[in-house]
Amino acid sequence: MKRRDFLKGSAIVPAAVATARWPVMAKMIGARRLRIAAVVYDERYADCWMFAETLAQQGTIALPTGGDAARLWYGALREQLALRGGNVAGMTTDADLLVSCGCGREMNMRMAYEGFHDCRTSGRMKHDLRGKGEEREVYAALLRADAPWAEALAEALMRVPASDRAGTQGPSMEQATATTSRGAGNPGYLTSWLLSI
């Protein structure tokens, strides 16, 4: 066998394999339209850690606020989004949610989901969820969860398909409320959110 014939023949095999796998790869890409590129979390609280860790196990870059969400958005997070693109999830305090909304808006991102998690007045965690369909997946996950609520919430957000209905502002916003057991090390009030492009 000549060297030239060998090289031609060996080039055909990878091309044939790639061609055979393309429909499978395309289906996987389509099924996972909602890509959470980064998760912003308040590293002071166990529920936030759990939320971020659950998303990080799926390939999401986890970025702690470090006490300054704006610095994160104008630094490491902006760099990650420039490299990877995608959506940003978060579990933070209310102040960091407001900063993230403003910074996300500058990058043409819109709020797709918001959750308000409050256990200040009882030993149970009340979850007020808002979205345009996304809240239903989160609500169902919280009700059937055999895992801690922050983990169930993160897994639900990974399952939510991308929607052309991004943006929770407006009259068509849907709401749901669920109650779960309180997580350990919770400050009493946290927010979860998803900003999408």
Number of helices: 7
Number of domains: 2
Number of strands: 7
Task: State the end-to-end distance.
Answer: 54 Å
Order of helices and strands: HEHEHHEHEEHHEE
- Which radius of gyration do the C-alpha atoms yield? 20 Å
Low-confidence blocks of residues = 10-33, 164-171
Give the neighbour order of strands across the main sheet: 2-1-3-7-4-5-6
**Class of secondary structure makeup:** alpha/beta
Overview of the molecule:
The chain has helices at residues 3-31, 46-56, 69-74, 76-84, 94-106, 134-144, 149-159; strands spanning 36-41, 61-64, 87-92, 110-118, 124-131, 174-181, 189-196. By secondary structure, it is an alpha/beta fold. A seven-stranded mixed beta sheet has the order 2-1-3-7-4-5-6, with helices on both faces. Helix 2 (46-56) packs parallel to helix 7 (149-159) and helix 6 packs antiparallel against helix 7. The longest helix has 29 residues, at 3-31. It is globular and about 40 Å long.
Question: What is this entry, summarized?
Answer:
This protein is α/β, with parallel strands linked by helices. The protein contains seven helices and seven strands; from the N terminus they run αβαβααβαββααββ. It has a seven-stranded mixed β-sheet, with helices on both faces.
Give descriptors for this structure.
single chain; 197 residues; alpha/beta; 7-stranded mixed β-sheet; 7 helices
What layout of secondary structure does this protein have?
Blueprint: H1 3-31, E1 36-41, H2 46-56, E2 61-64, H3 69-74, H4 76-84, E3 87-92, H5 94-106, E4 110-118, E5 124-131, H6 134-144, H7 149-159, E6 174-181, E7 189-196
Parallel strand pairs: 1-2, 1-3
Antiparallel strand pairs: 3-7, 4-5, 4-7, 5-6
